[in-house]
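Lab intake sheet, docking and co-folding queue.

SAMPLE TYPE: protein with bound small molecule
LIGAND NAME: S-adenosylmethionine
LIGAND FORMAT: SMILES
REQUESTED OUTPUT: full 3D complex as structure tokens
PRIORITY: normal
SUBMITTED BY: R.K., bench team

The fields below were copied directly from the construct record.
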Amino acid sequence: MTDKFTIEQIKTAFDKSFEGEPDEWDDLRNDFIAELTTPQRTPQVGEAYMHKGDATLYLGDCLDILPSLGKVDAVVTDPPYGIGFGYTGKYVDDGGEKYHELMLSLKQYPLALLQYPEQLIDLCINVFGQPDECLAWVYNSNLPRQFRLWALFGLTADFSCFKQPSKNPECNKVKRLLVNSYDWWEQPQVKNTSIEKSDHPCQIPVSCVERVLKLIGIQSIVDPFMGSGTTGVACANLGRKFIGIEIEPKYFDIACERITAAYAQGRLFA
Ligand SMILES: C[S@@+](CC[C@H](N)C(=O)[O-])C[C@H]1O[C@@H](n2cnc3c(N)ncnc32)[C@H](O)[C@@H]1O
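RESULT FIELD (auto-filled):
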């Protein structure tokens, strides 16, 4: 079909056929157009993007895409772990220098950064200085370290939006960071048996990101290390605008699917 007509021509024809129809049909029309414009095969890096609801997703390197986005209200992200960690058998974040470059690219934005492991915390302090506030996501695991810190730079958290603004100022890690305020909450990790588990090795829980989004209250979010799209799902659930960037086609596809499903579900229960 698209061999004979351009997508623009099909959209125009389709729009005409909806003229005079009730407003409720808009969603149907938008879904049809989204289907039409979503690539049907796994795209190459830099080639694809997808719009769904209030989300725009890019397949590519955030170092290339971030500068083209213009003003960004806030970055909320869980950057690649451990320096030199191979996600799909190849090294995406291939050393301290690259990592430093990635962190520098975020320096200009109000930022909520999930910090893990230790090296990343030290590296972040070198790049960003001390965080303004810290949130600790606590979970059970077999490892001695059972929490990860969300560090806020240029953002403030409204702790009053939760009934339990638990502070733990005696925590050594927090003391070391000398932050202004601190909150923690318990939340299980995504396990292989979790309903939300996708094929991404480092997926974090949607409700963990939702908590951060509620605390910072910003309406428009960018995640430059989108992975399986968890931040995008949280944004869809909370009605926030979202831009996501992911370098691995396999994870980009997972993110597209999860965010599409989140919007579809939102409409079902609306
Ligand atoms: C820790 S994971 C994010 C996981 C995510 N929070 C989730 O719940 O699925 C970091 C992601 O960043 C991606 N990544 C690494 N370097 C990147 C770059 N330069 N640009 C965009 N994405 C990158 C990796 O492929 C990986 O999927």
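REVIEWER NOTE: The pocket of S-adenosylmethionine is lined by residues 61-63, 78, 80-81, 87, 92-93, 102, 200, 202-204, 224-225, 227-228, 230, 245-248, 251 (CB under 6 Å).
SIGN-OFF: pending second check by T.M.
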